[in-house]
Design goal:
Layout: E1 6-9, E2 15-18, E3 26-29, H1 32-52
Antiparallel strand pairs: 1-2, 2-3
């Protein structure tokens, strides 16, 4: 399964991300590479926790698109 992540850049140049289909699954990093690594780990740990607690694993349903402004 592949989950959409939303990446935001902070005013200080750091980055944060969240996973719309996994409420509460968030991470951050000083660089995009660090963030990508951290959010990947966060997704794996989030799913592991859901399994450990016998909770259902949400299917990825989010999509991304862009609009011209």
């Amino acid at each position: 399964m592949e989950y959409v992540i939303v990446i935001e850049e902070g005013n200080d140049g750091s980055f944060s991300a969240y996973v719309p289909d996994l409420p509460g699954c968030v991470s951050c990093g000083d660089t995009l590479d660090e963030l990508r690594h951290n959010i990947r780990d966060a997704v794996h740990l989030h799913l592991e926790s859901l399994r450990d607690h016998g909770e259902p694993i949400p299917k990825p349903i989010s999509r991304t698109e862009t609009v011209a402004a």
